[in-house]
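seq:
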Amino acid sequence: TETYSFKVTRKILDRGRVLGKVTFNDCTSLNSVLYIYEDEEFGVEADGVVFVKRSGLLLDQERHISVYARDDTGNTFSTVVTLRREGHQQEFSPAEYSEDQVLYFPESPQGLRRSEE
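struct:
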């Protein structure tokens, strides 16, 4: 069984977003393939395109979705789709900044003062 891995760069999965495409080369009859999926947050179109059916969050680094296909002769095939989150997570490192990139603010006097008009 072939497995698929689709990269997701955002934690938020928007409704309608295409994630990738699955195909089953072992299907004896490619004229009519019915895709069946267990996860109600994702859908599979007739051509094998996997998409976000309901908006949500990808909380873990990986999420697995089982996809099944049945051809018109009754043969059933399955695969696992892995959604793998890969983002632009940057950590702040003060050593990366030079002295001219740092902003300095004047010290303010203690307490709040009311301005008189």
